Amino acid sequence: MRTLQALLVPALLASSAALAADADAIWFGGPILTMDDKAPATQAVAVKAGRIVALGSKAAVLRAERGKTTVLHDLKGRTLLPGFVDGHGHFGFVGLQAQAANLLPPPDGPGASIAALQAAMRAHIATAPTVKAYGLALGLNYDDSQLAERRAPTRHELDAVSTDIPIIVTHQSGHLSALNSKALALAGITAESPNPAGGAIQREADGRTPNGVLEETAHFAAIMKLLPKFTLEQGLAMLADAQKIYAANGYTTVQDGRTDPPTLALLGAAAKMGRLELDIVAYPDLVMNAANPALSGPLMSRSYAGHFRIGGVKLSFDGSPQGKTAWFTQPYLQPPEGQAAGYSGYPAFPGAGEAARWVDMAYAKNWQLLVHANGDAAIDELLRTEAAARAAHGGGEGGGDGGGDRRTVLIHGQYLRADQIAPLASAGIFPSLFPMHTFYWGDWHRQSVAGPERATFISPTGAVLAAGQRFSIHHDAPVTFPNAMRVLDSAVNRTTRSGHTLGPDQRLSPEVALKAMTIWPAYQHFEEADKGSIALGKRADLVMLSANPLRVKPSTIKDITVEATIKDGRTVYERPKG
């Protein structure tokens, strides 16, 4: 049991600080989980000028910090934590998601069959003002693994919705899409179009005619060509929608994890105009932005300007395991349509030395590097190319020659092998893992992607923890909604849609999972001195939950609600009453 002196000392120490007198606000009256191993819990938190100025017993903090204008926040039994830090997501596309047709499968949307997708797109075309404004009907997040037909819609099925309006529906992974004939024509894709390097145009039975489904680089090229050039106000409206979604889920620091040039420019403009209230850290796609002067400008910084900064750059080494484009060393259990037995996916950079050149560029510039690698073959390539770049330019865990502490990040790492974990640690590569797959696609991984044995080890958070590594867990929005409680639930329970526990030995305790959503992703972003825990001097980035995740039954974690989100001491979200 902590002594009275132990409870009082933090408050008394803080009282001597210049900012401590007459706090702006004090929180008390419920569990306060600090995510600070030195003091995991406290009774009260005082804030002034957006910073935490006191922690300790309720009586001590009120006595030392309460002034005439101090606002008192009684938690009334609810739980206060540090604001969630986004380990990986796509902030800009969440704004776009808010304006597109929702094609997610149940329980998040209507997408249980191709007929349901068609109905959703017809309703979207009939009611959404954006269709006329953009000259495009966009639907996001169909999932063939959850469709009754267990396949993607074809151009013919989308033509049945409309042949006059171009239609794009994107796969939930974000790595594939299906287009109607009008959209294919506008994208310039015909029977004579070759498969691009690192991608594929799926074909009809004649082996030539596009069936409407595009993979990887073919998909990304079509998206970039067909998405409209949004006006500034349209773009700002999408960012505002995205911020509301993230704030409602308790996130105070948000990642845009593969920023394209237009979105990078929009985020910079929004920051200058004071339109951002959450901290947004962007990692521009290096291939798309190699010549972008913004990468060498003042926004490439560890400090925010108007709640925005560029944290580094992003590369993708493969695709999606649920979309069956991730790059494995072993074959898929059931190859996708049109592929022979033995198919194991493919690299995003098939040219000899191409991936190594991009990694070397990032290391030469001393940019923090995020690498999307889902399959174990892609992770092997990350380890090879990173080792060569580190040998040439220095750096790694704890500092090093020239490059310093790089904190290169493995994004997703779903089929990370056990023998790859120690090399990641030796290289100082930080894993940002994706256990939400255990719920959304766990059954698909077992039955179709990799089989029961390999699937139990997807997103192996337990093994990474046992190896002594820090890591983050993420939602990859808009691949899934940025639902923080679903992120937590999936890491703690690893329960599939059918109720199967996928890899029980990889489950995390709620406390560790919360660290992987707060202090550890803050470290990932070089922000651990300023965020990620409730500690003296840190930013007052806080989230209030309806219940204590450490005390409820693990199976009910997903039912906890975000009651309020506080950024720099200011409430940016309150859950509506009733």
> What percentage of residues falls in helices of 4 or more residues?
25-40%
Mean pLDDT figure: 94
Instruction: Calculate Rg over CA atoms.
Output: 24 Å
Give the distance, in angstroms, between the N- and C-terminal Cα atoms. Answer: 38 Å
Please write the CATH class name of the largest domain. Answer: Alpha Beta
The CATH architecture of the largest domain is Alpha-Beta Barrel
What is the topology, as strand order, of the major beta sheet?
A: 7-8-9-10-12-11
Low-confidence stretches: 1-20, 397-402
Per DSSP, the total helix count is: 21
Derived from helix and strand composition plus strand pairing, the structural class reads alpha/beta
What does this structure look like?
The protein is of the alpha/beta class. The protein folds into two domains: 110-226, Diaminopimelate Epimerase, Chain A, domain 1; 237-530, Metal-dependent hydrolases (TIM Barrel). 32% of the residues lie in helices and 20% in strands. It is built from 21 helices and 23 strands. Helix 1 packs parallel to helix 2, helix 7 (181-187) packs across helix 8 and helix 12 packs across helix 13 (376-393). The chain is globular, with a radius of gyration of 24 Å. It starts with a helix and ends with a strand.
Quick description:
This protein is 32% helix and 20% strand. By secondary structure, it is α/β, with parallel strands linked by helices. It has two domains: 117 residues, Roll (Diaminopimelate Epimerase, Chain A, domain 1), CATH 3.10.310; 294 residues, Metal-dependent hydrolases (TIM Barrel, Alpha-Beta Barrel).
